[in-house]
């Protein structure tokens, strides 16, 4: 008997057997329906299984560790650039505000150095007028004039300025020898020009304050300013903070107030861009000034070695319609405070659908206790040690050498019981900076005594560092584990290391360079397939031929 519902249901009407169905036709129909049901169930089972496999196998957790400024967040940005390019491209415009702040920070560094130099020289001149004071150390300084009688210091080699300005007194001696007497006319004129430039750059101070106020919501418990306090400058210009930080994600998406923070920040960024555009010629003049360059050299201030340096790109980044490029986003400096988990799914390639959980942490000493809860349930750790920092100190503790801090941190990670079974991958990062430093004649052995008289070149240095970190890992790990150490420059989009791990239960793909493009390339080298229990980890290292380097990082 048919129900009313059957009569009303269009689907039931269509599927209903014909009223005049023969017994053979009925058997055939029932067999077809059973077959369709079987296929449908098989499809359902496959989907269920796929979902389970997806859940079980395709979530990869990676923890990025390392000291502050080691390149953790930059590494994360590289992953995003490669694997979620659409989202990465959409976010590029938000980085404009960070780059604006980076530019202002560099200007701040320069004006601070100039102001300090002035204070020093004026004190010395005053002393000179009240009676010359000569120190034998000044006689060994290698100082030559520029041939025009201006009496400026030109430093011949690193050794010539190694001891300069370690303390005020040492600098005084040099200034004493250079500026015994009145300031040369030309220098006085250039100083007056610098004063005028600094004065015209004053609006940047307001811009910096405005951007920071917009980026860090008023409820934020951390101060927006880190680093140096106000300094006495020729003008009051740019006496603000050294570095900006925000909690991950907030500055791009969160809501501070009625409108999304991103909209408010965008308005502020437009205003900042207008001011930067108006100041662009003064900014260029400041950075191009020979007088400024000489003062920076004398005070051993190298803004170009600071993170987030954009003064060589002023023409572009102060443009009215400036939109950051991929490289700009990788170069920008934004300090991470707190811990945050970034989740993304591959948009393309074989690993499409793999769920990534990459945990990025703040690396400063104050932040490190917050790492521990993330040691649980992690598949791999990428530890970044910026080996170029051998001649630098920690911002948070200027008594501590940055390389030494990295080594101690690495030791702590290797011997941590919670991480005993976690795959460790070491990126000896900032190799591009290390190369530049060594090429410029800075001697590694001066800072790393055990380096002895080994050749001061990249090849030897990278082998040396890998050997050291490897030995620590061997000595302090609770059980033997494979060690992967690579020299990387994670800001570079053409040359960097990546990891590809695959196995029965897991498939990772962490390559920075799209693999397919690279496998046939002559620059591609070094593939290993060691076994880690169930999972195999395969590491690829790609060295771009355009950089004219030989691959050196075979595991
Ligand atoms: N030249 C060069 N710069 C790099 C490299 N890696 C990172 N940087 C730059 O160094 C700065 C610091 O990098 P971040 O990724 O912010 O460092 P971090 O480890 O996340 O630092 P915290 O958030 O303070 O813990 C950024 O301006 C990067 O562009 C590199 O290999 N070479
Ligand atoms: Mg960071």
UniProtKB/TrEMBL annotation:
Keyword annotations: GTP-binding, Magnesium, Metal-binding, Nucleotide-binding, Transducer
Any GO BP: adenylate cyclase-modulating G protein-coupled receptor signaling pathway
InterPro entries reported in the protein's UniProt record: Gprotein_alpha_su (IPR001019), GproteinA_insert (IPR011025), P-loop_NTPase (IPR027417)
Binding site for Mg(2+): 336
Biased composition (Acidic residues): 1-10, 158-167
Single annotated GO MF: metal ion binding
GO cellular component, one term: heterotrimeric G-protein complex
Region of interest (Disordered), residue spans: 1-22, 121-167
Gene3D superfamilies named in the record: GI Alpha 1, domain 2-like, P-loop containing nucleotide triphosphate hydrolases
Binding positions for GTP per the UniProt entry: 330-336, 429-432
Compositionally biased intervals (Basic and acidic residues): 145-157
Identification of the protein by name: Guanine nucleotide binding protein, alpha subunit
Species of origin: Multifurca ochricompacta
